[in-house]
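Team,

Forwarding the record for the chain on the shared tracking sheet. I've put the sequence and predicted structure together so nobody has to dig through attachments.
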Amino acid sequence: MFKAQYRIAPHLLKLFEQIAIVGALVRNSRLKVSVKAPLERDAFARSVHSSTWIEGNLLSLAQVRAVVDGRDLLVEEKQKTEVANCVGAMRQILKSKHKPVTELGLLAVHARMIKGLLARDRTGRYRSVQNYIVDARNKVIFTPPLPARVPGRMKALFAWSKDESLHPVIRSAIFAHEFLTIHPFVDGNGRVARAVGQWLLWEKGFDPLCTLGLDDFFAQDRPRYYDMIQQTRDMDGDFTHWVEYVAEGLAWAHDDVQKRIKAGTLSLQGVSLTPKQEELLGLLEKKNVLGASEIGHAMKINRARVNQLISPLVRLGIVIREGAARAVRYRLNEK
């Protein structure tokens, strides 16, 4: 059975309070859809860029945004595949963000995260070989458990995570760290650990808009991130400082979003939307997917006017157009 040792010190309680207060302020800021949508897309791209960069991917943030938007890039194929896979895995998680994190779900995330980068019999499956964690000089600093022990260790971790008395941040932080210690896969452990750590927060109602900044926090001081992981192992599994570190990251991410809202730096690259376009976006946010006739009926305008309002939104990437002719449907571009 997995047991996690940690202390809830005043510093951690203060961080929890800060996260709760700033999170409430962000949720109550009543951002317009035209501002919220690009902010969420930007946070998503930054999260993918940071998580893959931590693992050594060299694509710039601008190049990652191109991959998120589905545009082709003339870059090294492995680099592009790593980013595209991370995009796909995070979108897969977002679709199930309020559902419980399960072992099968985690294996599916790994399969998507590592698609085309490992042999098929090693994707979405626990490792059958021993792996090692090395430092920048290729010196072994930690040896994960033997392959035969991985399934049992993972089941014990999932059993521990079902404790409803755990604070969501403590649960997410410790799960991700123990996952990294077990190192259950041949490759992709870091990216999957961070992604599932976010899923555990979203499952408990934490806003993705703010928690997506956690990868940025880790990436801004990558040596500290790795030092904090190893320090917890060196302290015989006392997770106190690791939990505080993750809570600091969440507080930083929440504060960063609030500062950007207050500064008014969230915009659509200088494009102003009309009240009718704002109304249309609000309708799509409420109804998810609508056809042109449904939009026209709800807004009491004809099809030509619907097209006039929505075409610029499609060009900006705020709205996705699917289908053709009279079968066309529209939905918000969530990421």
